[in-house]
């Protein structure tokens, strides 16, 4: 036993204080042994604890409960999730997608044409205008562009600006670059016989843009305001509208999500821009002036519940390989089929039409109905509206299958097939490849083909030969 006041450490002697006597050796060695034992046990325990912590740390991915318990707050979550897990219902079959058109949601706020600011290009920034035969499609661009920024934090749409044409500076993390949160449009400005410049039903393009914006979480806007801004842009670059009835000025409005974050959600910033390109014919045709198309049932362009009916970039990239394969086989375009019955949906980037003699002996113009897989083309809608006024033609939206095309062709009742779109107006089709069959369609053999009558009517409206409510005069 230690004596009271005895300590392991010698304390400095205070003057006059009694000296503490020498420690007894047996007592000191016993206490050292006890201490060593204690230390060894403690260090063993610490070692084990360290090993345990290390093991837990390395294996926490296997021990959900350990992770959940790492914070006392997580206990509640764990209990709740355990309850939810017990009640998870067995998976049910997905409901059939709703392909009915959804009601159009009007934009809450929009930019205004009245706020438009214009900065004109300096003389040295002006581009040389190519000759009409060299134009191609989308190779040259005019001197100015329209830009409208959207910044949610600044209250939404900012003032529209027309600036000299210039490259965009974009953050590498912008959502448009990763998740294709973007959309685009295509319409044209035509220089009429009276030298007036006209747009063709731009209101329908605006409507389609807003529907695509809604689907992709991009901001919507007032289409009339954008039309006014586009008209101003065209007025500024009006000398770029070709003085020709075989060339036009193609207008490409584009809306991209610019917010630089990786989250897949509606972007808080976006850019709407419009660029202009003088263009000539879009598709090359065969010697007879018609195109040849290839139907490959193993690829689809769109599917129910998808975005085949919206003009979004993600619909177009994945068509390139199929189009290249069709080209290797000597065809100009892909005929996009869908479903076990090989329903015709679209051809290339066009809507598809067929003319045939129906069961009542009448000449009928048919196109597949808008079922969600098909882009609601402005040209398509105009053809249906115009042709339904003609007494000698029955006009119908109906499902068209490959079997039906083959059967009508075999019985001599199939007269014409053609594609329609802003870029081409009308593109007659004279040959189809389908699996191992070659189908020749007598489109170019008709004496007064329907496709030509439709094309002439549309061009007459677009180039101002006839006054029509579809035309919007720019200047
Ligand atoms: C897939 C697709 N279908 C059809 C069309 C034709 O539409 P529009 O007549 O509006 O040019 C286009 C062109 O925009 C298209 O890209």
TrEMBL record:
Q: Per UniProt, which keywords does this protein have? A: Amino-acid biosynthesis, Aminotransferase, Branched-chain amino acid biosynthesis, Pyridoxal phosphate, Transferase
Q: Name one GO biological process term.
A: L-valine biosynthetic process
Going by the entry's taxonomy, the superkingdom of the source organism is recorded as Eukaryota
Matching InterPro entries: Aminotrans_IV, Aminotrans_IV_CS, Aminotransferase-like, B_amino_transII, BCAT-like_C, BCAT-like_N, BCAT_family
Residue ranges with Low complexity bias: 12-25
EC number(s) reported in the record: 2.6.1.42
Does the keyword section mention Metal-binding?
no
Instruction: Outline the segment boundaries, as ranges, of region: Disordered.
Output: 1-25
Q: GO cellular component annotations, sorted alphabetically?
A: mitochondrion
The cofactor(s) it depends on are:
pyridoxal 5'-phosphate
Q: What family does the Swiss-Prot or TrEMBL record give for this protein?
A: Belongs to the class-IV pyridoxal-phosphate-dependent aminotransferase family.
* Name the UniProt record assigns to this protein: Branched-chain-amino-acid aminotransferase
């Amino acid at each position: 036993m230690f004596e009271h006041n005895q300590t392991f450490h010698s304390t400095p002697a205070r003057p006059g204080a009694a000296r503490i006597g020498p420690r007894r050796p047996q007592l000191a060695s016993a206490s050292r042994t006890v201490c060593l034992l204690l230390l060894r046990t403690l260090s063993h325990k610490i070692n084990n604890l360290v090993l345990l912590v290390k093991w837990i740390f390395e294996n926490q991915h296997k021990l959900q409960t350990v992770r959940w318990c790492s914070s006392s707050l997580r206990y509640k979550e764990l209990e709740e999730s355990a309850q939810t897990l017990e009640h998870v219902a067995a998976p049910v079959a997905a409901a059939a997608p709703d392909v009915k058109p959804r009601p159009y949601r009007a934009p809450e706020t929009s930019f205004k044409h009245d706020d438009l600011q214009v900065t004109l290009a300096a003389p040295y920034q002006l581009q040389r205008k190519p000759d009409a035969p060299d134009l191609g499609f989308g190779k040259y661009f005019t001197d100015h562009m329209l830009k409208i920024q959207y910044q949610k934090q600044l209250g939404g749409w900012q003032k529209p600006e027309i600036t000299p044409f210039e490259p965009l500076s974009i953050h590498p993390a912008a959502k448009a670059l990763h998740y294709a949160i973007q959309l685009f449009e295509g319409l044209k400005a035509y220089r009429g016989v009276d030298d007036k410049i006209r747009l063709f039903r731009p209101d329908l393009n605006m409507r389609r843009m807003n529907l695509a914006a809604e689907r992709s979480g991009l901001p919507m806007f007032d289409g009339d305001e954008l039309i006014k801004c586009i008209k101003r842009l065209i007025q500024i670059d009006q000398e770029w509208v070709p003085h020709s009835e075989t060339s036009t000025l193609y207008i490409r409005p584009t809306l991209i999500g610019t917010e630089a974050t990786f989250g897949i959600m509606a972007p808080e910033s976006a850019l709407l821009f419009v660029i202009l390109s003088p263009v000539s014919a879009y598709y090359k045709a065969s010697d007879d002036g018609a195109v040849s198309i290839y139907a490959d049932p193993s690829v689809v362009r769109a599917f129910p519940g998808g975005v085949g009916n919206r003009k979004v970039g993600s619909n177009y990239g994945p068509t390139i390989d199929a189009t290249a394969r069709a080209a290797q086989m000597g065809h100009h375009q892909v005929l996009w089929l869908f479903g076990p019955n090989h329903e015709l949906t679209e051809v290339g980037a066009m809507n598809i039409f067929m003319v045939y003699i129906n069961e009542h002996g009448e000449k009928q113009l048919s196109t597949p109905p808008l079922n969600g897989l098909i882009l609601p083309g402005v040209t398509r809608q105009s053809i249906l509206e115009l042709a339904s006024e003609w007494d000698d033609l029955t006009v119908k939206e109906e499902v068209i299958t490959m079997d039906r095309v083959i059967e009508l062709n075999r019985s001599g009742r199939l007269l014409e097939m053609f594609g329609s779109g802003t870029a081409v107006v009308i593109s007659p089709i004279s040959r189809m490849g389908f699996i191992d069959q070659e189908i020749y369609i007598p489109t170019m053999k008709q004496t007064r083909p329907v496709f030509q009558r439709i094309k002439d009517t549309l061009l007459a409206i677009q180039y101002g030969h006839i006054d029509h409510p579809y035309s919007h005069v720019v200047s």
